[in-house]
Amino acid sequence: MHLSPADIQAIFLTLKLASVVTVILLLLATPLAWWLARTSSKSKGVISAVVALPLVLPPTVLGFYFLLAMGPNGVIGGLMQQLGWQALPFTFAGLVVASVFYSLPFMVQPLQNAFEALDKNLLDAAANLGASVMHRFVTIAVPLSRAGFLTAIILTFVHTIGEFGVVLMIGGNIPGVTRVASVQIYDHVEALEYMQAHALSAVMLVFSFVVLLFIYTLRPAHKNIN
Amino acid sequence: MELRFHHQRQSFTLDIEATLPDHGAVGVYGASGAGKSTMLAMMAGFIQPDSGRFNLGADCLFDSAHGINVPVHLRRIGMVFQDSRIFPHLTVQDNLHYGFKLLATKDRRFSLQQIVDLLEIGHLLAQKPHQLSGGEKQRVALGRALLASPRLLLLDEPLASLDVRLKRQILPFLRRIKDETQTPMVYVSHALDEILYLTSQIVMLDGGKVLAAGAFNQVIHDERVLALAQSLGLENVLHAKIAAHYPSQGYTVVMVDTQAVSIPPVDAAIGSEVSISVAASNLALSTHRAEGISIQNQLAGTVTSIQQVGSKVLVSVDVGAELIAEITAKALDDLKITQGCKVFCLFKTQGVYAFLST
């Protein structure tokens, strides 16, 4: 049982995609989760529902609409074409954009839970000591929510690694560009290369298990430090 | 400082108008729900009043008519809360430094060392908050607020969650802060003895309104103030000097003006200053010195005023300092005392509560 160069390439592409998506989501979802945790606005319900959509929708549905929107005749795709940009479907960038939406709830929800559990009194105390909104967030909210950040980052990363349907719909199957591990496994099975499918699947299985084990066993200890 | 806050929430209306001294300490006194904490939250900027104005020195921090509302973090008003609100993820030293580090060097009025010495918290610097006792947390919270060099220090019942023993330990630190840092303070409490230990300047709040403001021994003669103070447990606080210790007999003698008073043993050198408090309800009056009685303290004085509050009568007696005794209307009839009468104020040694002045 060994991994072929194509398998290794698929694994690295998968890790690259998951890393890029996690970083982008960290930047996008943190302010969104903060807003959702603090707001009493009426639009909170609508936004929450949109964020949670990828949890219930089949990934193919999501992928299908992305394909339509980003294709040359789509709203976004047409606009991009007019600006002289490359269309997103069947590119790595396209995969990133689709995955950001697909993994959004996995980043937003743990962060939102952590922010909602924050003691607002501590933020008030920090304001009273002269800390601006941003300084309060960085020095009080982030360190006190680090368990939430850890969970959100790991879940987003692992979930993006496990993505299949959206990738297939929007990214196709281009080696080194959009052929991630899950698609590579699918190809092996289609070609009846069961040993190779098995090798790559085992890597994914062990990796996912170790990560989840880390979350469920190390997190309580981590929490105690707080 | 000048404040005028108007605020309406459901059934509660806050309508406060007061001019407070810019130096020294002011005690804000009233029952729970009188609006004391809300008033402080408005001064700090946590709650925006529906309308009003708040000037601190020459600066306007809030003025609804001109759309001025300086945000909390720019007000430079320190606050110490009942729950210390120490940051749980930071060491004591980092907590103390939190506001200090945000200040420009020229605005820093104290050094860490000064505050650490003042509050005697040097041994705690490396500790995490969960290792601290309630009293230690409050001292750290005080230090943290002071190191941010506030122009005004607000104290919202900082001792309410502490037991009696700890209160007696912390109160002298508050007095030190007032005396040594020259930081104006507003001290909110429903315990009159705490306030009077710190200051004689008080603001009485009742039902969201200022009932009276000024020196305690002047406003207390307002009948409504007296009624309120009496319903919350009226305390006499006297300043005294330690004269002698009798450890084997279990008491200490202090001098109030020229009269000796026995109090429970205190651990302080002869000649040092203490404040003692006696509840008005623990004072008995007699028209002549009582013989064959276990009560040790009999202070001679002159009746200066007699006021009826409900079924109770409050008799003010000048014993070199003013004492207020709470007696029944029947007792007043039996004693036949009037203004100008010579009387003795009787109270037990164990009924006296002493605060050291450090």
Describe the structure.
The complex is a heterodimer of chains A (226) and B (358). Chain A has 226 residues and is mainly alpha-helical. Chain A is built from 11 helices and no strands. The termini of chain A are far apart. In chain A, 33% of the residues are buried. The C terminus of chain A is likely disordered. Helices cover 24% and strands 37% of the residues of chain B. A 6-stranded mixed sheet of chain B has the order 7-8-9-3-10-11, sandwiched between helices. In chain B, strands 2-1-4-5-6 form a 5-stranded antiparallel sheet, with helices on one face. Chain B has a 5-stranded antiparallel sheet with strand order 14-13-12-15-21. In chain B, strand 1 and strand 2 form a beta hairpin. Chains A and B meet through helix 6 and helix 7 of A and strand 7 of B.
Key features of this structure:
heterodimer; A: 226 residues; mainly alpha; 11 helices; globular; B: alpha+beta; Rossmann fold; OB fold (Dihydrolipoamide Acetyltransferase, E2P); 2 domains; 6-stranded mixed beta sheet; 5-stranded antiparallel beta sheet; 9 helices; 21 strands
Fold topology:
The complex is a heterodimer of chains A (226) and B (358).
Chain A: H1 5-38, H2 44-56, H3 59-70, H4 75-82, H5 92-117, H6 120-128, H7 133-144, H8 146-161, H9 165-170, H10 181-190, H11 194-225
Helix pairs in contact in A: 1-5, 1-8, 1-10, 2-5, 5-8, 6-7, 8-11, 10-11
Chain B: E1 2-9, E2 12-19, E3 25-29, H1 36-44, E4 51-56, E5 59-63, E6 68-69, E7 77-80, H2 92-101, H3 112-119, H4 134-147, E8 152-156, H5 164-181, E9 185-189, H6 192-198, E10 201-206, E11 209-215, H7 216-219, H8 223-231, E12 235-246, E13 251-256, E14 259-263, E15 273-279, E16 284-286, E17 297-309, E18 312-318, E19 322-328, H9 329-335, E20 342-347, E21 352-356
Parallel strand pairs in B: 3-9, 3-10, 7-8, 8-9
Antiparallel strand pairs in B: 1-2, 1-4, 4-5, 5-6, 10-11, 12-13, 12-15, 13-14, 15-21, 16-20, 17-18, 17-20, 18-19
